[in-house]
Specification:
The complex is a heterodimer. By secondary structure, chain A is α/β, with parallel strands linked by helices. Chain A is built from ten helices and ten strands. Classes of the chains: A alpha/beta, B mainly alpha. The interface between A and B is medium-sized, with 29 and 19 residues.
Chain lengths: 259, 219
Amino acid sequence: MIELKNVSKWYGPFRVLDDCTMGIAKGEVVVICGPSGSGKSTLIKCINGLEPFKLGTITVDGVSVGDRATNLPKLRSRIGMVFQNFELFPHMTAVENIVLAQQKVLGRDRASAEAKAQVLLERMGLAEHGAKYPAQLSGGQQQRVAIARALAMQPDVMLFDEPTSALDPETIGEVLAVMKALADEGMTMMVVTHEMDFAKRVADWVVVFDHGRVIEQGPPKQIFEAPLVARTRDFLSHLGWHGESTAEAEHATRSAKGA
Amino acid sequence: MFAGFDFGILWANAPFLWNGILLTLQLTALAVTGGLLLGVVLAVMRLSSVKPLAWAVEGYVNFLRSMPLILVIFWFYTLVPKLTGRPVSGFYSVLIAFIMFEAAYYSEIIRAGISSVRRGQISAAMALGLTRLQAMRYVILPQALRNMTPVLLTQSIVMLQDTSLVYVVGLRDFLTSADIVASRDNRPTELYMFVALVFLVVCFSASRLVNRLRRRYAL
């Protein structure tokens, strides 16, 4: 579905992305994690061409993103994106937010676009909130409207850029639940997140990112139970991951003593 | 207090003064509308990633902003007939001058307004598949215009007051009409008080109207 090959990008002399290679198949959930400022968000924004990149290739469903001849608006309409700060349009109600691109990009008429919006809001547990403006909704509700807005375009793949990082702890759960439900329905998803529980339970593949490089990738079992790279373990324990990584550490200490 | 004043003179000259008011309001309405439209176009060009376009607009804005309005009016009065090869009425040459001049100021206000909208908004709009222009039209400009209405209103009121400069090309706006009556009948105090009162009423109503529009479309 999505294929990244040797992608590199610079901000001036600073290399934000360093030779990144990864892929995601249809119906898969890939979680990208790594320390703040490591380039995860930049990477995900390269996939729908919101950020340009210098070297390498990115293809989405066979279409090359970096190719000048590619119709980016058309490609983007097939890739849903959810942002850290929701980015709902504040001058529009929840329904209007979901209707806008359906009308202007897909050419749906107002009635069917509104019907679609209503169905999606119900799915998000927000049936009562359609007429409200973003400022009248909580962070978790806003993010669910943003997910509905992306889903209204019937995308082939959904990109999530730290969807819960700007949320209060009590509303994180409701957004993660919606995302898990999406994954269970077979949606292809690429998720940048610090939510390691989500990664462990939902991801098919986990990519660990640091300083613009993929330092390790593999199935969650490998990443969380037997990471091949020490830096992965550091990062996970930094996030307070006290699952298998603690046992690992103890094991490591014991064998060190034994030696 | 008003002993010795003769306000009957206003009534006696009402049709003449009314024509002046009409010209002033008409010119202001057309110039503000045209200036805003051209201002939006200039602001978008100024923010464009096509550098020569942005530079051209920057030059235009800096040039016009460093000129006194009265000079711009003179230019257009002498320049437009030469360029088009036929005489142009004072009204149209002045209107073009006002639109070009105001657009320079409006475009700077609008540019600041556009920049005040969070960057993520345009990313979100484009991520949905909207083109850059659609994102501007449906997402960025509505928010930007809301942020900048107070400044736009102030600029438009200045524009209203500047219409009195059209006397240099022989047009009779409100102030000029009043001035003609004042000097002919030697009644400057009454006339100038009346002019001040009308300007006050017009500006006050305009700001009330804008505030009501803002409230109606506010979040």
